[in-house]
Design brief:
This protein has helices at about 25-30, 35-45, 60-79, and strands at about 20-25, 50-55, 55-60. By secondary structure, the chain is α+β, with helices and mostly antiparallel strands. It has one domain. A three-stranded antiparallel sheet has the order 1-3-2. It starts with 20 loop residues before the first strand and ends with a helix.
Length: about 80
C-alpha cells in the first residue's frame, strides 16, 4: 500500500481472534449437529449451558467443552 507522497506503508494483520462464545448456529456448525437437534437436546436438558447477552443466546467455549466431556463420559459409560 502507498501512503502520502507514494511511500510504502506496511500493513500488518493481527492474528485471528479465537471466539470466546458461540451463537447457537455457530455451536451447531462447530459440533456438526442440526439446530433442530440442538433444541431437542435443550428440551431434554442435555444441551450445553447457555448465557443471555442482550437479546442473544450464547454458549461459552468452556460450556461447549464441558458439554462434550459429558457426552464422552455418557458414551463411555454406555459401552
Amino acid at each position: 500500500m502507498f501512503g502520502k507522497a507514494g511511500r510504502n506503508i506496511r500493513v500488518t494483520k493481527s492474528p485471528p481472534i479465537e471466539p470466546m462464545a458461540y451463537s447457537i448456529k455457530q455451536f451447531c456448525e462447530a459440533h456438526n449437529i442440526s439446530v433442530d437437534t440442538y433444541f431437542r437436546m435443550q428440551r431434554a436438558a442435555s444441551g450445553p449451558v447457555t448465557m443471555k447477552v442482550g437479546g442473544r443466546t450464547l454458549i461459552s467455549v468452556e460450556a461447549a467443552a464441558a458439554w462434550r466431556r459429558e457426552r464422552e463420559t455418557g458414551t463411555a459409560a454406555a459401552e
